[in-house]
Amino acid sequence: MAISMNKNISVIFLVLFSFCSQAQEDSLQEILAAINKLEVKSEPKCYATASRLEDFMFGTPLDNEARFAKNILQKELIELLWQRASAAALKQKESVILASHIEEAAAQLFTISKDDKGHWQLKLSDQQSITIHKDDKRQYASIAYSLRAVLAVQQDMLVNFESDLLPLSTLAIDALKNTLDFYTLAALKIADNKAKINDERLVSTTNITQTWQELLATEPLNENAKTQDALASGFDYSPIEPTLLLQMADIKLDAYAQYNKVSNQLFLRNLQVYFARVTWPKEKAESDEIIKVFGELVADFSRELYLGAQQFAMNDGQRVIREQDIYKYAQQFIPHKINEYEDALFFPKLPEEQQTYIESYDMDAFRDAGVHWQYLLQGINNDEVQLYLEPDPFAAELLVENIAQYGVLLFRIAGELVINDDKERLKAEFLTAAQEVIAQRTALHNKVKPDEKRKQSIGSSNLALSEDKEALRFTEVSDLTGIHYEHRTSDWLNRQLRTFIRTSETTGIITIPPAFGGSGVGAEDINNNGLIDILLLGGRGVALYINQGDGKFKEQSDDMGLSWERSSDDMPGEMRQPIIADLDNDGWQDVIITYVNDKHRVYKNIQGKRFEDVTDTAALGGEGLVGGPATVFDMDNDGDLDVYITYFGNYLKGDLPTLTRYNANGSPNQLFENLGNFTFKNVTKGSGVDNSGWAQAVAHTDLNNDNLQDIIVGNDFGTNGYYINQGNNTFKEISKRLNTDKPSYTMGIGIADLNADKLPDLYISNIVTMNKDETYVLPNEDTRAKFNADKLATMKVVEANDLFLSLDTNALKYENSMLVERGYSSTGWSWDADFFDYDLDGDDDLYVLNGMNEFNVYSSKNPYYQDPNGKEMADILMPVSPLEKNVFFENNNGKLNFVDESSGLDVLSNSRSASFFDYDNDGDLDIIVNNYHEAAMLFKNNVEKAKRNWLKVKLIGDPKQKVNRDAIGTKLLITLPNGQTIWREVRSTDGYMSVHPKQQHVGLGTANTVDIEVIWPNGKTQTLSNVTSNQELEISL
């Protein structure tokens, strides 16, 4: 069937639907015009981006079936409102539905008002009230979700030939869209809360359907409904011309052309450089042949996808092609999964070497020219093609989404074939071969049987506390103990954060990426008196609180020589990571503090009385760089501690991350070998750990149980690095082999053995963001990320933390576990995340610190500056920013379970780092939290009232036997009488810039005696039997 490609297709429309009234035709055109107007103004969002915004709106994604159900529910509600508005208009003898008629119909369901902050209040017929944030409404309304539902109902009327409803005026269409936007947001918000409470990772069909009906209260969803889904039987299929699809394509192509203004030259560059990733032929004839063959192949795919989905719809007796028809056939045609970044993994059931991963920005670049719509039209413009059904508007969007995915996939595989054949340039024949490869992999994929789900487990003691459990948790005691420290960003960085590239009177683009990491905290016995002291860092300066032994602390940083000021401005610098460790093996804890744009300071502990500044001797660098998390460990097992310092991208020079999932344009991390006497040698070159992925976290642990400490680097703008120590001062990156190479924006790394296999399990605190208000035209992996403060202030952030459990297999591998409850207050922008046994029952619990979107502090709407001494500038307003509660998870019944406000730890704050230690020597672990631009908080653990048993073990290494005196890297296995074994490892740093005491604290539950095995880094082991509980034990090598 040949289809005219002329944009002026109104003649075809009039001939085909001559039996419709002119008013109904005008109504259809008004709806199409409304979609065009919206998408020209706010960008013609693709199906994936539109779906992602719904998923990010409140935090819980919809599963595919729930999304399909939601769209059907939207159609049914539109029809209900349309029916009532039409009846009201007829009563008033109107020939068209006005906005007032829609508003009258909507008022039967809910009323809308604005509060004094501009947020929307929806009051439902049952008097339930729901608040919709003004930015949520604005962002949701920028995508044509509701207009597509209106168009779908209009389509059903035209297909059924039975509608007697009046047509919609332009303003009525706007009112209908506005009503459905509000109603859908309310339903999504409530469904999200239900999912969190029920510990569900996805909004299910049942959830969204029940929520939708509950909001309607007594209103039936299908009141006189005549949608096409309810009229499936007895339909006589005849060939059609897809008039409405042509019109949808017409307005889409117009919107792409007006919004993106993409040139053919730029699009062809992307085909070569970013899609195929190989060199383009020099000869024009060869280049033209590639474009011709590519167009034919994608058009063929488009036609097959359309016809396959059409057959599914006809088999079900449908009158239009639905989303689920497109989805079902596409999964058989090009099986793939879409992740939270909109990236696509093709052939996910096949071995890794046969999978293809394509980032969303490449598919965005393909769509920006609108060519996916053009290839669809080309595919169905064929005399031999018989079309019997049109796709509904939702299905049409998903149809072209799959076309765009296929187009990039075809070029990507063709490029791989060029490289595999050791050819220099792309040729058309490789595209044909790529089509065959896709077909072969699809056939293999469809034959793969689903893997049996491996049962994951977490060891839990399941010891119950007393009935007064809530009273036994944590109490904030900062004032009582004398902890008075408030974090501030350093003066110079605060000033630089206020530097904008001004684009208008109200809008600026930040010249540096986010620098809101804050500072770390450490807890350790500085003066060897058996009491744990506290070290807090921030732009106001260092604070060293010495434990007085009477429940009080005394700040003594000046007295002990830890205070330092920059010579350039006589102010403290931007401090990041504290490290407290015995660097020279003399039995006293020394200190390293990393900085941004200053030398990393190193201090030698002089017998617990004062510190000597040995920064220049150590020469660890740092000037002109953005230093961050750091750690010390004995990389070569020679008996002393080496230093590893990670770096962020150098925003001092204006460096910005790109959109790639594998950013490598940050400053390389640095590895230093300890040569003794506080001298260090930079041995980064050739070590394999010069990761340049914008580091925000670092940890060391023995991943493969070979007594060598390995390194984990958590990157903010890229994939995390997992480096296995090769034993010769070199490391090998194996994240892909470990199954931990997912794209992440990592802030913290928590380590514990949760499944009792004597291997470390990992909790990675991440964020996944969506900046709906920012746009990129023809983006690619080299496109620099934008940091417009006003747009970033409304960025969506969703929970994305990962619990990686080690697998019980011969090969070292991890699996992402769901054995962490979501809870009503789920994790959001998480920073430090650490394990500790808060209730002394012998299993590890988890505390996750949440921060906030700090960009709104620096947007033009919230100008903010405060100097390190706390003096506000007179003409500056303090922002009111949304904070997030910290989240506490208790290990119980084989799962990390969310604990509500009864924990005493769910503070509404902007937290960054935390240390766990027993400040009052009562046998349980207390917590010190360093917040961002807020006061630090000390929490006292009250679980000692439960009379649980415990053990503290301090290990002392022997440098002469190649074990550092701090015993960092040593493992403890504590076996209880019931056979339970508790794993501990001595580490210098944890989580996010946090330092815990190296003395190992172990909860024993009701056990009175235990057996201990010590595994030293040099391979030697020691065993102790029948060790009594409730004591501090010292074990020397």
Describe this structure in words.
- This protein has 1037 residues and is of the alpha+beta class.
- Helices cover 30% and strands 24% of the residues.
- It has 23 helices and 49 strands.
- Strands 13-12-11-10-45 form a 5-stranded mixed β-sheet, with no helix packed on it. Strands 28, 29, 30, 31 and 32 form a 5-stranded antiparallel β-sheet that branches.
- β2 and β3 form a beta hairpin.
- α6 (134-141) packs across α8, α12 (284-315) packs across α16 (393-420) and α13 packs parallel to α16.
- The radius of gyration is 31 Å and the shape is globular.
- Residues 2-20, 223-232 and 858-881 have low confidence and may be disordered.
Task: Please describe the structure with a list of short key phrases separated by commas or semicolons.
5-stranded antiparallel beta sheet, alpha+beta, single chain, 1037 residues, 23 helices, 5-stranded mixed beta sheet
Q: What's the quick description here?
A:
The chain has about 1050 residues and is α+β, with helices and mostly antiparallel strands. It is about 30% helix and about 25% strand.
